Amino acid sequence: MSHELRTPLNAIIGFSEVLQEKLFGELNEKQAEYTSDILTSGQHLLSLINEILDLSKVEAGRMELELASFDLPLAIDNARTFVRERAVKHGIKLAVDVDDRLGDYVGDERKIKQILLNLLSNAVKFTPEGGRISITANKTENGAEISVSDTGIGIVPEDQPKIFEEFRQVGGDYAHKKEGTGLGLTLAKKFVELHGGKIWVESELGKGSTFSFTLPERAWRAS
Amino acid sequence: MAGELILIIEDNEKNRKLARDVLQVKGYQTIESETAEEGLKFAVEKHPALILMDIQLPGIDGITALKQLRADPITKTIPTIAITASAMTYNRVTMLAEGFDGFQSKPISVKDFLEEVRRVIDSDRG
């Protein structure tokens, strides 16, 4: 199914990029604006399709972990690099504190990076200019615990259980203005659970939020 | 600079047009086929500097077609880029392991696509 869904998007995203790159000449202001709208909407639709396909795979029990030993602190650093530019643009400080005792971990590197990226992208999205985001990773008795804290808008207690549900963005006008697929946290939760871990949030309205998840060491067999 | 002949094997008409327009505006020449069967014939006849091979095709798929290209002394050295819309199933690592010289997932980024085309043609020249 993924092939059928992505093929038409190739034309939508590709042709609008050709226009935006002005490969066939200049655009007037309105044409440039609409082209950019088509391109960003196409890319948004692509993320939605990718996440819905991932989610349907998890729910059908067909999502398999591609297990391998990888450098967990390096994966954290990669995820940080990915959002650094956006954070800098919004004057947000990005701090990382990784326990020296953490090293290689056996798990699905791509999915663990996806969890980190989803949490970090949310933190950047919901943290006002001049705020601060910190990533903390600690070794625990049974593996690792990783947290992403922000000084963002926060989430009221009654909304906290809802945010891991599909297509639930909470928090009124400010949050609704932020573009997202509404599936990032749902997928993060599924990916954490596939690794046998837990994910949770602690938050205070107006002060910020901390999302934490655990990655237990298990008797994984690396494939 | 450009000018090289590139063979586009792709069954979707609009995706073929996208590749053709982007390559031609950058000065490349293109020929196209909708199936691998026809594409293999063109490869023998025209000996392009590069082949862009869609993986999911009606009839012979792109991976099988590459094996046939590599088995024929006339076409075996033509550099070939795999292009696929199934990024979950195929990725750069698995496609290079199949023997492709480059990889692009759909939807393509026009800039990355042009860079990959240039890179693969240039690396063929050593």
Report on this model:
The complex is a heterodimer of chains A (223) and B (126). Helices cover 46% and strands 21% of the residues of chain A. The mean pLDDT of chain A is 88. In chain A, strand 6 and strand 7 form a beta hairpin. In chain A, helix 3 (72-89) runs parallel beside helix 4 (109-126). In chain A, the strands form two sheets. Chain A has a five-stranded mixed beta sheet with strand order 2-4-5-7-6. Chain A is α+β, with helices and mostly antiparallel strands. A five-stranded parallel beta sheet of chain B has the order 2-1-3-4-5, with helices on both faces. Chain B has helices at residues 13-25, 36-46, 62-71, 92-97, 110-125; strands at residues 5-9, 29-33, 50-54, 80-84, 102-105. Chain B contains five helices and five strands, in the order E-H-E-H-E-H-E-H-E-H. In chain B, 44% of the residues lie in helices and 19% in strands. By secondary structure, chain B is of the alpha/beta class. The model of chain B has no long low-confidence stretch (mean pLDDT 93). In chain B, helix 2 packs parallel to helix 3 (62-71). Chain B is globular. At the A-B interface, helix 1 and helix 2 of A face helix 1 of B.
In sequence order, what are the helices and strands of chain A, one letter per element? HHEHEEHEEHHEE
Fraction in beta strands of chain B:
15-25%
Mean pLDDT of chain B: 93
- Unreliable parts of chain B: none
* pLDDT averaged residue by residue of chain A: 88
- The Cα radius of gyration of chain B reads 13 Å
Report the biggest beta sheet of chain B as strand number plus sense, adding barrel if it closes.
Answer: 5 strands, parallel
General form of chain B: globular
Report the sheet with the most strands of chain A, covering strand number, pairing sense and barrel closure.
5 strands, mixed
Q: Structural class from helices and strands of chain B?
A: alpha/beta
- Could you estimate the helical fraction of the residues of chain A in percent? 40-55%
Measured distance between first and last alpha carbons of chain A: 26 Å
**From the alpha-carbon coordinates, what is the Rg of chain A to the nearest angstrom?**
19 Å
* Count of DSSP-assigned helices of chain A: 6
Estimate what percentage of residues of chain A fall within beta strands.
15-25%
Question: Please, how many helices of chain B?
Answer: 5
